[in-house]
Amino acid sequence: MARIRITRKFNFEMAHALWNYKGACKGIHGHSYKLFVTVTGIPESDNTSAKYGMVMDFGDLKKIVEENVINVFDHTVLLYSEASTCFESMGKLLENKIIIPYQPTCENMVTDFAARIKGKLPDHVELHSLRLYETSTSYAEWYASDNL
Q1: Which residues contact 112 (CB under 8 A, 6 or more apart)?
Q2: Which CATH architecture has domain 4-146?
Q3: Which residues contact 92 (CB under 8 A, 6 or more apart)?
Q4: pTM of the entire predicted model
Q5: Residue 97's beta-bridge partner residues?
Q6: Over pLDDT 90: what percentage of the chain?
Protein backbone atom coordinates (compact mmCIF):
# COMPACT_ATOMS: atom_id res chain seq x y z
CA MET A 1 0.00 0.00 0.00
CA ALA A 2 1.09 3.58 -0.64
CA ARG A 3 2.76 5.78 1.94
CA ILE A 4 0.58 8.84 2.54
CA ARG A 5 1.05 12.21 4.24
CA ILE A 6 -1.73 13.88 6.19
CA THR A 7 -1.70 17.44 7.54
CA ARG A 8 -3.63 19.25 10.23
CA LYS A 9 -3.65 23.04 10.72
CA PHE A 10 -3.63 24.72 14.15
CA ASN A 11 -4.00 28.37 15.17
CA PHE A 12 -2.76 30.04 18.34
CA GLU A 13 -1.88 33.47 19.67
CA MET A 14 1.45 34.17 21.33
CA ALA A 15 3.78 37.05 22.14
CA HIS A 16 7.55 37.08 22.26
CA ALA A 17 10.54 39.42 22.34
CA LEU A 18 13.85 38.91 20.59
CA TRP A 19 16.66 39.58 23.02
CA ASN A 20 19.61 41.65 21.77
CA TYR A 21 17.88 42.19 18.41
CA LYS A 22 18.22 45.57 16.70
CA GLY A 23 14.89 45.68 14.83
CA ALA A 24 11.22 46.24 15.65
CA CYS A 25 10.88 42.72 17.09
CA LYS A 26 13.14 43.47 20.07
CA GLY A 27 10.17 44.50 22.22
CA ILE A 28 7.29 42.33 23.32
CA HIS A 29 4.86 41.87 20.45
CA GLY A 30 2.38 39.21 19.39
CA HIS A 31 1.44 37.11 16.41
CA SER A 32 -1.44 34.95 15.24
CA TYR A 33 0.51 31.77 14.52
CA LYS A 34 -0.56 29.05 12.12
CA LEU A 35 1.04 25.63 12.55
CA PHE A 36 0.76 22.92 9.91
CA VAL A 37 1.71 19.45 11.16
CA THR A 38 2.30 16.73 8.55
CA VAL A 39 2.76 13.08 9.42
CA THR A 40 3.38 10.13 7.15
CA GLY A 41 2.54 6.45 7.23
CA ILE A 42 0.75 3.60 5.57
CA PRO A 43 -3.04 3.64 5.91
CA GLU A 44 -4.59 0.90 8.07
CA SER A 45 -5.31 -2.09 5.82
CA ASP A 46 -7.44 -4.14 8.24
CA ASN A 47 -11.01 -3.57 7.09
CA THR A 48 -12.33 -4.60 10.53
CA SER A 49 -10.44 -1.75 12.21
CA ALA A 50 -12.26 1.47 13.10
CA LYS A 51 -9.30 3.29 11.50
CA TYR A 52 -9.39 1.34 8.24
CA GLY A 53 -7.94 3.47 5.44
CA MET A 54 -6.38 6.02 7.80
CA VAL A 55 -2.72 6.84 8.36
CA MET A 56 -3.86 8.32 11.67
CA ASP A 57 -7.14 9.64 12.96
CA PHE A 58 -7.11 13.45 12.55
CA GLY A 59 -8.67 13.68 16.02
CA ASP A 60 -5.74 11.76 17.53
CA LEU A 61 -3.27 14.09 15.80
CA LYS A 62 -5.24 17.10 17.06
CA LYS A 63 -5.09 15.80 20.64
CA ILE A 64 -1.31 15.25 20.52
CA VAL A 65 -0.54 18.68 19.08
CA GLU A 66 -2.98 20.51 21.31
CA GLU A 67 -1.66 18.82 24.50
CA ASN A 68 2.03 19.29 23.66
CA VAL A 69 2.12 22.60 21.79
CA ILE A 70 -1.09 24.62 21.52
CA ASN A 71 -2.25 24.34 25.15
CA VAL A 72 1.30 25.07 26.33
CA PHE A 73 2.02 28.15 24.18
CA ASP A 74 -1.36 29.72 23.35
CA HIS A 75 -1.79 33.18 24.90
CA THR A 76 1.64 33.19 26.53
CA VAL A 77 4.68 35.41 26.29
CA LEU A 78 7.77 33.48 25.21
CA LEU A 79 11.04 34.85 26.56
CA TYR A 80 14.65 33.74 26.17
CA SER A 81 16.14 32.88 29.57
CA GLU A 82 18.99 35.37 29.00
CA ALA A 83 16.46 38.20 28.75
CA SER A 84 13.88 37.11 31.33
CA THR A 85 15.32 39.27 34.13
CA CYS A 86 14.60 42.34 32.00
CA PHE A 87 10.87 41.66 32.40
CA GLU A 88 10.66 40.58 36.06
CA SER A 89 9.33 43.95 37.22
CA MET A 90 6.25 43.57 35.02
CA GLY A 91 4.68 41.17 37.56
CA LYS A 92 1.11 40.15 36.72
CA LEU A 93 1.35 41.60 33.20
CA LEU A 94 3.67 38.69 32.39
CA GLU A 95 2.00 36.11 34.59
CA ASN A 96 1.47 33.78 31.64
CA LYS A 97 5.08 33.63 30.43
CA ILE A 98 7.32 30.78 29.41
CA ILE A 99 11.07 31.09 29.86
CA ILE A 100 12.94 29.02 27.29
CA PRO A 101 16.62 28.24 26.71
CA TYR A 102 16.59 29.61 23.15
CA GLN A 103 15.90 32.85 21.30
CA PRO A 104 12.14 32.66 20.46
CA THR A 105 12.49 32.97 16.69
CA CYS A 106 10.11 31.17 14.37
CA GLU A 107 13.01 28.87 13.38
CA ASN A 108 13.79 27.84 16.95
CA MET A 109 10.13 27.46 17.89
CA VAL A 110 9.36 25.11 14.99
CA THR A 111 12.35 22.97 16.03
CA ASP A 112 11.09 22.86 19.63
CA PHE A 113 7.57 21.96 18.49
CA ALA A 114 8.88 19.10 16.34
CA ALA A 115 10.67 17.62 19.35
CA ARG A 116 7.52 17.93 21.47
CA ILE A 117 5.38 16.12 18.87
CA LYS A 118 7.73 13.41 17.54
CA GLY A 119 7.79 11.21 20.62
CA LYS A 120 4.02 11.30 21.08
CA LEU A 121 3.02 9.83 17.71
CA PRO A 122 1.96 6.18 17.34
CA ASP A 123 4.79 3.81 16.36
CA HIS A 124 3.53 3.38 12.78
CA VAL A 125 3.36 7.16 12.14
CA GLU A 126 6.32 9.47 11.53
CA LEU A 127 6.52 13.22 11.79
CA HIS A 128 7.26 14.44 8.27
CA SER A 129 7.26 18.23 8.59
CA LEU A 130 6.05 21.31 10.40
CA ARG A 131 5.36 24.72 8.92
CA LEU A 132 4.95 27.59 11.37
CA TYR A 133 3.57 30.88 10.02
CA GLU A 134 4.52 33.85 12.18
CA THR A 135 2.82 36.29 9.83
CA SER A 136 0.72 35.78 6.72
CA THR A 137 3.84 36.08 4.57
CA SER A 138 6.61 34.58 6.73
CA TYR A 139 7.11 31.05 8.01
CA ALA A 140 9.74 28.52 9.06
CA GLU A 141 9.71 24.85 8.14
CA TRP A 142 11.13 21.76 9.83
CA TYR A 143 11.56 18.54 7.81
CA ALA A 144 12.48 15.16 9.33
CA SER A 145 14.62 14.39 6.28
CA ASP A 146 16.76 17.47 7.04
CA ASN A 147 17.25 16.40 10.66
CA LEU A 148 18.37 12.79 10.58
Answers
A1: 100, 102
A2: 2-Layer Sandwich (3.30)
A3: none
A4: 0.92
A5: 77
A6: 78
